Amino acid sequence: MKTVPKILLTTIFLAHLALTGGNLLKNGDFEDAAGAAAWYVSCTGNGTGGISTGVAFEGQRSGFIRKLTDLGSHVSSIGQTVPCEPETEYFQSAWVKGGCTFFTYLFDAHGNYAGQGPAKIICNGNWRPVVNRFKVGKSIHSIQFRMERYGRGIPTEAWMDNAILARADEVPPPPGPVTDLVATLVNGAVTLEWTAPETTARLRFLVLRSRYPDLMETATPLAIAQDECRYVDSTIPADWPRVFYRVVPVDEWNQMGTSDAFREVRFTPALPTGRLVARAASPLEKTRLYTDIPETEAPATLNIELARYETEAMQLLFSAVGGPVNGVDVTVGDFTRDGAANGEAAPRFTVTLRRVDYVPVKYPNLPVEPGLMADPLSDWDRPVDIPEDATQAIWFEVATQSECLPGTYCASLSVVSEDGFALEIPVTVTVWDFELPLTPTFHTSYQIWGGPMFAKPFGLEPDSPEYVQLMKDAYEFLLQRRISPCDLPVPFDSPEAEKYFNDPRATDFRIPCGFWRDIDWKKFQRDADIARSAGVITKTYNYCWDEPVPAHYPHCRELYAKSHKLAPDVAFLLTEPPCEELKDHVDIWCPVLHEIEWDKATAACARGDHFWWYNCVGPIAPYPTYYIDDLGHAPRVLQWLQFKFGVEGNLYWCTNYWTTEDVWTNPATWGTANGEGFLFYPDKEKCGLVTSLRLEAIRDGNEDYEYLNLLATRLAKSMPPEIARARAAAMVEPVGAALTVWNRSPEAMLQHRRRIAQLIIQLGE
Fold first, then answer.
1. Are 523 and 563 within 8 A, CB to CB?
2. Does this model's pTM top 0.85?
3. CA of 295: how far to CAs of 204, 224, 277, 499, 743, in Å?
4. Tens digit of pLDDT for each residue in 32-75?
């Protein structure tokens, strides 16, 4: 294939942009060494940034940032600020490689920060084009084009090339798809040929390849064809039975075209019916729909261990090898307890089967390829068809009751398919001889956003009877997972409120009085009086301002004073780290994870303040996140670390942030933060809620917290309570030592949970 020298291509592409007058950035290709001053660099600690020589998408140079793990490295960024026209739409793009956030800051006429444009979180080892479009408001007078990594202790390297900032009306539409894509197999090599879309823009073509059919246009390119509509692939792994290709055009504005062109090439014919392979996996394993299937086949068994009044699960993974397997169905037999006397009552636990479903993730936040990833857990209500080379996960869950007798229970799980497969899988449930408390020993506040956001996916009107019932269902949904929702599903003065006040599973209630500057203080005082009369005033808090900046601190002090004047027994919560400016004006400090300064948190707690934490969009890995594409035990480890550091509560800003048209088909609700702000899915067909792997992992983490607290309680019978708790907290170390230092092996977490359970049993009541 002919090639054009990269430096020449850069010159051609950027010369074309210069002729259009579109790019507002100076030295957007970073090739002008004398123009380096156009780009500012802002780094803390040992972070660095600037112009890199030798690493570039095209030419010889690119912009870069590098961030180390020292806690002083809070941010590393590179950017350029340009004037803009208010109330105008703008376009931002570049080729980006590495781990960073790609976005803009917005400033008013006085140079004051006034918000930011949409962000894309990038985590990839190869160059990819990235585009943001945004409209600035009437008060915005300058835009800061920005690539950064933010967060204490988060290392990174990232590069940016061919950066463009332009008025959106000067940018042509993105190219259409290539057509007439033909894939020809000759002597083990595949020749791809296609027709370019009609456009006046200069194009290059991303050639994408995968063994599996969930190949997305954002996958890492196999190659970039730049001068002809043809590519020869002679590097196909010998063990692939088939290969899939996409060809995606990209113009000189870094805009990707649509990727309708998709071809499959087979090397071995598909079988009419594949071979069904079953294996067990922990509840913390996230298995993609299309993933490599282990060659060795071990007998599948399900072994679950749990306490009384606990819920725990395992997964069964069914793979279709060599062809599809249709109509796979699963049923569970009756359980019997080892050594049970004749006539013993049925086990005091329930078994639930769920189907793991898969959602498309285009921009992963870990260094993995995009594709169909596991998250929703739907009811097991019908047999499933498993495509060739796919792996379907089944969720097997056991929930014990308080009266469940300890011991080992056995049953079998029957698997059949329309194609004639029949498997019997042994199931063992071991119930340990201790019980978790009904009332959580920690605080939570997870928000359910009502109104149109909650109602729209179901086609309901807010305040309709169906909507009201769904809000109650969502409240119960969280309580069942040891989570207190932020708000009651009914007004404080409702006759139904008493039922919710008296529910022992609920630990905290926000007094709803409005938010930001729109506070209804009469309603606040009335609801505080109701809570006081109901005997739950110690469970209440006032959360009416979010993430203030220093300019907001005087107003926050006023809010605290007003709140305490009207209801001095209602705690004032602020999502901000402890600081001197707000000392004695906050009862519950609740910072985002990466903003925590432990010395200040310790000092605040020593003077009687309370300390919670939360995550919201950021920080990203290696911090634990609730992202769909993060590790399966990332949500669960947060509760281990919560106990270790003595954090009293955990807040999450929204559990139903269903902002995309359909979170089942586009779960990127906030930039590229997949699953951010929602932990369950709307079931439109059944008008109900579907849980997720992430929400169940949070529930398991809440139960793990109770294990650690129970261990501390039993240790305290033979030593001072503070020493007992310190020893229990030390047990967390093999699982997690810090917010960015935790064991990436889910099996290590489960093994350590087992050790803690054994210690609890040994210590006795």
1. no
2. yes
3. 39, 33, 10, 54, 27
4. 888 888 999 999 888 899 998 889 998 999 999 998 766 566 78
